[in-house]
Amino acid sequence: MGKSVNLLLLLMAVLLTPSFVFAQPFGGAMSFGGLMPLLLIFVFFYLFLIKPQQKKTKEHQKLLNALKKDDRVITAGGIYAIVNSVKGEIVELNIADGINIQVARQSIATVITEEVGKGVANIPDIVKK
């Protein structure tokens, strides 16, 4: 009962709210000034959201294509490992002495370089050089 009363009150509030739609002159094309906010929103989204995401995706794809044996990697699940082999979309990783797993190439989050390794505390011994 409470939800239906709230819905009824909301519907009444929307219907009884004064509308200024009819104060606009009838007809006429939308002016450039009317399109300006939409253009600014699109430019903002492109520059600050779409373009950086595309750049990040390209860099990650380049990183995945350059995977090779003995690269030190971190998977998307947070597993530190060393690449044993790359066969198409499957990467075989060594996560401990004698323990190998196979993961999808896309699940490799990053390759550990000297720069990245300095910023990561407690890198497992198997991944250290």
Percent of residues in beta strands? 15-25%
Helix content: 40-55%
The helix/strand class is: alpha+beta
How large, in whole angstroms, is the Cα Rg? Answer: 28 Å
CATH architecture classification of the domain at 68-119: Roll
Which shape, going by the Cα principal axes? elongated
CATH class of the domain at 68-119: Mainly Beta
Keywords:
129 residues; alpha+beta; SH3 type barrels; five-stranded antiparallel sheet; 5 strands; 22% strand; elongated
How does this model look, in words?
The structure is a single chain. The model has no long low-confidence stretch (mean pLDDT 81). The protein is an alpha+beta fold and 129 residues long. Helices cover 43% and strands 22% of the residues. Among the domains are: 33 residues; 52 residues, SH3 type barrels (Roll), CATH 2.30.30. The longest helix is centred in the middle third of the chain and has 34 residues. Strand 3 and strand 4 form a beta hairpin. Strands 4-3-2-1-5 form a five-stranded antiparallel β-sheet, covered by helices on one side.
